Amino acid sequence: MVFWLIFSAIVLAQSAHNLFVKRKCKKRSFRFWDKDYHNQHLVTISDIKHYYENHHNDNCSLDVDETTWSDLELDRLFNRINYCHTSIGEEYLYNADCKIKLDN
């Protein structure tokens, strides 16, 4: 009898803990995708150009020039799609956005 009481208490506690963790995770992901949260973390392109500048002589791709970049307002697009957590990820994303891959 005591065994079943302890067992059911453990199962109930584990279920409550799992529910709490699931709700916390869901709340965190909604906050992350919220527009207000995302707009607070806008990136200036001059801060993240380093990777692109070091790798921009790649022969298997074309680069988007500065005039085209500014005409198409790709800074705004970059900030809109940038959900990177690190500056390294932001630099790589910028590099990928600036390159037009050529199929061989």
Furnish the topology, listing elements before pairings.
Blueprint: H1 2-33, H2 35-39, H3 45-48, H4 50-55, E1 61-63, H5 66-71, H6 74-81, H7 87-98, E2 99-101
Antiparallel strand pairs: 1-2
Outline of this structure?
The protein is mainly α and 104 residues long.
Task: Provide the helix percentage.
Answer: over 70%
Strand order within the widest sheet?
A: 1-2
SSE topology string: HHHHEHHHE
Global geometry: elongated
Number of strands: 2
- The average pLDDT value, as a whole number, equals 81
The helix count comes to 7
Query: Approximately how much beta-strand content do the residues carry?
Result: 5-15%
Largest sheet: 2 strands, antiparallel
Q: State the end-to-end CA separation.
A: 73 Å
Category from helices, strands and their pairing: mainly alpha
Q: Unreliable segments (pLDDT under 50, ≥5 consecutive)?
A: none
Describe the structure.
With 104 residues, this protein is mainly alpha-helical. Helix content is 70%, strand content 6%. It has 7 helices and 2 strands, in the order H-H-H-H-E-H-H-H-E. 6% of the residues are buried. The mean pLDDT is 81.
Keywords:
mainly alpha, elongated
